[in-house]
Amino acid sequence: MTDARETATPAGPAPVPLLDPREGIPPVTASPEALADVVAAFAAGSGPVAVDAERASGYRYGQRAYLVQLRRAGAGTALIDPTGCPDLSTLGDALSGTEWVLHAATQDLPCLSEIGMHPTSLFDTELAGRLAGFPRVGLGAMVENVLGFALEKGHSAVDWSSRPLPDPWLRYAALDVELLVDLRDALEEELRTQGKLEWALQEFAAIAAAPPPAPRVDPWRRTSGMHKVRRRRQIGVVRELWLARDRAARERDVSPGRVLSDAAIVTAALESPPNAHALAALPGFGHRMGRRQLEQWQSAIDRARALPERELPQPAAAYTGPPPPRAWADKDPAAAARLSAARAAVTALAEELNLPQENLITPDTVRRLCWSPPAEISPAVVSAALAELGARPWQVELTAPLLTVALTVRPADPAPSE
């Protein structure tokens, strides 16, 4: 394997602005008839298919797709409106067995799955960039550093649920898949040169085979600023306000933060106003909020206030994994010593291989192994334990030897007193 530290992209000429798709902006596919034509064209195409999706994060409820972009040799580029074509399973079926090329695949796969599109194999250009040691792995940076073109990224955070979509937005969307297959090919060659291609292929296969993410348990606990809320009754107020906000946001199809901010929820929980008039004086519940809305939020607060003690949420959700590492030294000094040794070894190897530590082996895997090591410490047993924790074969091969050594480390003897 070549030394990955020697593969930094050399300075070169200024990137060439990529201003327009090669065939111009394609029409937006928004009817079953137009979709059938797209399906036929992409089924007849050749090679990998570039895929991207645009959501309306911060504007609409949920993370569904409001535009799907595809490009394939022989088929050109297609822009599909999922509001007019909510079921793309025929397109997904037509692309079965075709490699999908995505950038940051785990961000787009859930919303694509909702409309019937599931890859059988994929190539993630962002993850490939991480494994190859690129310091900046956003699509714009990768296209510029690897291919020498500059993408205009000014519309990434717009409201993609707007209709009709303006031409500048559609141009931006089409350009996002314009060079994705070219980027894939260049990164595949870079990974092959570095001896990392097999690692990447294992990672891509794991992403493609992963089941849909399970719904979060107690998602209200992720309210920003939740750490300020200590008492169970106050935590109950956060829960009731969060659930009321979620219902309202779902009904109105808007982002929950546009209905009521997290900061307002936390403030109301800490202050526990006795009535709507007092609630209106709190930040986030100002004069722009109507009386009906204020009463809705006050009702949620009153529900939490009326709950019997046994129904109030606990301060922290149940957790079955290791405690926070900062507590290890007190709870289990031997485990703390193992973790310190393991972290140092993983950091050194990741630097040598020029890839992020979390891609070499996830921090959670290291913590779980060090907190509850196998009864027998040997490379074979540690390898099996890593595999059971979800590590891929390439990760096991590289890290099992050094983690085996780390698991034998013991706490240092106390220094003799003077």
TrEMBL record:
UniProt cross-references to PROSITE patterns, sorted A to Z: HRDC (PS50967)
Domain HRDC: start-end pairs: 231-311
Signal peptide residue numbers: none
Highest taxon of the lineage: Bacteria
Annotated stretches, region: Disordered: 1-21
The protein's name: Ribonuclease D
One GO-annotated biological process of the protein: nucleobase-containing compound metabolic process
CDD domains from the UniProt entry: RNaseD_exo (cd06142)
